[in-house]
Design brief:
Helix 16 packs antiparallel against helix 17. 30% of the residues are buried. The longest helix has 24 residues. The chain is built from 26 helices and 15 strands. Strands 3, 4, 5, 6 and 8 form a five-stranded antiparallel β-sheet that branches. Strands 7-12-11-9 form a four-stranded mixed β-sheet. Strands 1-2 form a two-stranded antiparallel sheet. It is globular. By secondary structure, it is α+β, with helices and mostly antiparallel strands. Strand 1 and strand 2 form a beta hairpin. The N terminus and C terminus are likely disordered.
Length: 573
Amino acid sequence: MKKTVAARVSAVPSAGHRRYDPEAIAHYYWRHPWQVIWRFVHISVSFLTFWLLLQWDKWLGQQESQRPLRAMQLRKLLIRLGPTFIKVGQALSTRPDLISPDYLDELTLLQDKLPPFPNEVAIAIIERDLHLNLGDIFAEFSPQPVAAASLGQVYRAKLHSGEEVAVKVQRPNLLPVITRDLFLIRLLVQWIKPWLPINLCHDLRDIVDEFGCKLYEEIDYLNEGRNAEKFAANFRDDPTVKVPKIYWEYTTEHVLTLEWIHGIKLSRTDCMVAAGVNPDELIRIGVISGLRQLLEFGFFHADPHPGNLFAMPDGRIAYIDFGMMDQLEESTKESLVDAVVHLVNKDYQALAVDFVKLGFLTPETDMTPIIPALESVFEEVIGSSVREFNFKVITDRFSKLMYAYPFRVPAKFALIIRSLVTQEGIALCLNPNFRIVDVSYPYVARRLLQGESPQLRRRLLDILFKDGRLQWQRLENLIAIARQDQHFNLAPTATLGLQYLLSEEGQYLRRQIVLALTEDDRLHTEEVQRLWNLVKSDLRPLFFIDVAWEALKASVSHTLGKEEDSNSLVVAP
């Protein structure tokens, strides 16, 4: 029996899904070159023609004026080359470290919609994988697919038990096709990279390998089913998020059967309003669920485009298509929060170190020109009105910086950037006046104030203290911002905060507060008075407020050694 490349790809025994192994793939094809030679010629001629056009522009001195046209031609070229290259284009559209802004804008227009493959082929795949006739599995099965994309197509069906389901069927022979193309792409990037409009500070084969790993995960429907169940488990206590049930008895690597979602596409604002769904509330749910994925669970949906998100008639948001997911390590989440803290504090030197920790820069990078560049980009953003802030603006400005300096976007952050910008784009379609910070700021402030973990508490202290001095204004701003979230209750947060303040871990905070109140050997209570006026209505029911206040006065008294000073430390009720 002829050995195929699929047999060369190692498998994960417990999961049953194949792992991308570029060395094994290359070993196979170098021994079987006749399997790729004509595809190689097709791809090479396509890119050679494109390169000749670029050289023609250079010879005529028309590079700038012709760049938009060439960017459009590159997008169409990728579409003609098929599913793998469409996915390549989509991946590159999230890589400002690789693609110049003109090409980046054009690649964001790539659509992965393709003509469906024949129904009889799809039915044959279902029957082959499930070892049953179609009529034995489904009482009803749509005569045509309801959606077709680069990797598969979806049918609407009904089980004999009466449950409506979506049946996702993978394109035939997709794994060998993708494997062959990945091998050729990896080979070609080394030859054509001098003429590509990309940043060449890194080995492009590493980028191809990152892409290959994610693509292999995406075409394994068993892996997608496990992702869906993990995602559902994370949101099991959240009544605003819906995840479809997976029917494992009718699911294989190439066929995925899941609960049919009776929802409205997020692009159909009129239909949502007609169904009684509040678009603004749906935006809030979507943004909060996205932030929870990144900052709480670390497991996030990396492809939340309008086709994968639905508004439910009961006001919930439904997620589908869990093929493109990623997991953030705890250390990565902590480094992200560090970067946010240093950005808030305008500590650009520490921010540059954070970029090294996160993998955007190598440890050997000379930071001398990068720190002023970071300052020039972010000072303008931070100084602008919060109402004018959006991720697309940040991405566009940062893209120019990344293209000019030796930045590289790690695969995880390429997916995060894509996720955030896509979600913001959906929200702006629903409400053109929407600003993502109106929802995200209160959520982040609430998370910091609640400080459920020692790591979050340390980051909060980093924000509240600057040069050893307590920044009362920042604390006041955090509380005011957090209260914009209607679901935020200050009393439980204050309970956690006071418990921490009076604990052994809070000894440092108690000392810093006392030092702030007794600076220059005199009491400074104006800030405390203003803060108390902000929160007193929420905190009055907490019986231990007086106890905590007496403890703080005692600390002041101990520090000053003057009982009369502590008696003068009074905040009006």
